[in-house]
Amino acid sequence: MTASLVLLAVLMAAVTYPSRAMPMLLPGVDRWPPSAIRYLQLMGPAVLASLAAANVAVATAPDGGRAVTLGVDAIGVLVCVVVTRWRGNLLLGLACAIAVVAAWRAFAIG
After folding, report:
1. What pLDDT digit, counting tens, does each position of 61-80 carry?
2. Nearest 10 degrees: Cα torsion 38, 53, 106, 100
3. 19, 43 contact by CB (below 8 A)
4. Mean of the pLDDT values across residues 69-92?
5. Please, what is the end-to-end C-alpha distance for the chain in angstroms?
6. Confidence of residue 99 (pLDDT cuts 50, 70, 90)
7. CA nearest to 91, candidates 77, 99, 102, 80
């Protein structure tokens, strides 16, 4: 781990914390417009989805550029999305995705 990654993590926490803390810190959040509440509820999954998409679909090409690739990680993300939507439980979706990717790599499929 490099210092730049730690700095990036601290910066991202500082940027995203205010929107996550608003419901706890501001009184009367239950009286906010429904669109504002829905926006705050969807911000976390949107950030998680964008991080997942960037990490599973973009890879470094042999010539040093970027290339779009889809592999077992993309299958894991798809499993997570499907199970989370089906059961309404993000933890279960993540566990299923981890199990699929771990089994795939353990048996060296593909």
Report:
1. 777 677 677 778 888 888 98
2. 30
3. yes
4. 87
5. 29
6. very high
7. 80
